[in-house]
Specification:
two-stranded antiparallel sheet; 12 helices; mainly alpha
Length: 345
């Protein structure tokens, strides 16, 4: 082979190798004590794009809260009937711009009769309003006073960009690959790695242990195997990507499993996992019969939320900007469940 061909081949091989790398410069911020390796790494170009994607839309001017109530004036108002007509109309217009700016009111409503529940989108939207108020009232352990609105997830899209469905089981029969145990798909959900590609079903719908190391010797009760650790790493990879942070954003490098000396973000994330599980179990799954078939996943399940649904690559949704202060009607009421009860979900 000629020298020029060797150089060309080497150049192409190097190009392929570097396709997964980010072009410098890269910024780093010391996040923990010196010597612990707790550093957050950022790409300025990526951060610029994320900043553009997380601009909060302007709010409609606030309107007086006095006057007749929406429940007295309009028919079939089951959730927001205690708002004044002014407040109710402003919130409906805001929701339209947050969720269906192109489709308008008819995305959820029958224009011939706005009170009808004939469109599934209206039934779902009503439940999502209840879910939003539940988050803001009952999950302050995760969202604090910043809270969420419909825009936090939808960003102008009728269906949020980041949702998930259960993966169908691997087809049985002649397969020279064998049982892949849910792995080796190079899925976006786990950063194109070979880790199990659906870490959401066991952890954000079910409540399996999120563990890497067992605390007891084999064979007495130690069920935290290497295979189970891979599922945990799949979830952690998703969380890291969803928030745009390193593992050390939540963990102390001296001991990833030990809670002592961890940043406060780890507790916030702990509640966030349980919040996502609560929302998927109590709000999304019960809507299965409401969604049409074309909106269901390959196994017939409804779309569900994970960390990326709200965060979308930012360590805090919308980089911590609160829209709730301009829309206090979404602040509550919640379910009234206490923090201990919610944490068990």
């Amino acid at each position: 082979m000629k020298k020029s061909q060797l150089l060309l081949s080497a150049g192409l091989a190097l190009l392929v190798l570097l396709t997964g790398c980010e072009r410098p410069p890269i910024d780093s911020v010391q996040h923990g004590f010196r010597g612990t390796g707790m550093v957050q790494v950022y790409n300025p170009r990526t951060m610029e794009l994320k900043a553009e994607e997380n601009v909060v839309p302007p709010s409609l001017p606030a309107l007086p809260g006095d006057g007749p109530k929406a429940g007295q004036v309009y028919k079939n108002v089951k959730v927001l009937g205690n708002l004044s007509v002014n407040e109710f109309t402003r919130l409906m217009l805001s929701m339209t711009s947050w969720i269906a700016p192109n489709e308008g009111c008819v995305y959820c409503h029958n224009p011939a009769n706005l009170a009808e529940d004939t469109k599934y989108t209206k039934v779902v939207a009503r439940r999502m309003i209840e879910m939003t108020r539940h988050i803001n009232a009952d999950w302050k352990s995760h969202v604090a006073e910043t809270g969420v609105t419909c825009y936090t997830c939808h960003r102008g899209n009728p269906v949020p960009n980041n949702i998930w469905f259960k993966e169908p089981e691997q087809a049985k029969g002649a397969d020279f690959i064998g049982d892949r145990a849910g792995q080796n798909l190079a899925a976006d959900s786990v950063g194109s790695s070979s880790l199990p590609s659906d870490p959401f079903t066991p952890f954000l719908l079910g409540n399996l242990d999120i563990r890497v190391n067992g605390t007891t010797a084999l064979p007495n009760g130690n069920r935290h195997s290497i295979k189970q650790a891979e599922w945990t790493y799949g979830l952690m990879t998703h969380m890291s990507t969803a928030l745009g942070v390193n593992c050390t954003y939540c963990h102390n490098t001296q001991s990833f499993s030990n809670w002592q000396g961890n940043p406060p973000q780890r507790s916030t994330a702990w509640y966030g996992i349980r919040m996502a599980r609560d929302l998927n179990k109590d709000y999304m799954e019960p809507l299965t019969s409401v969604f049409p078939e074309h909106r269901l996943g390959p196994t017939g399940d409804v779309p569900k939320a994970n960390c990326a649904t709200c965060h979308q690559g930012a360590y805090k949704p919308l980089f911590g900007q609160s829209m709730l202060k301009d829309h206090p009607q979404l602040a509550g009421p919640g379910t009234g469940l206490d923090k201990t009860t919610l944490a068990k979900k």
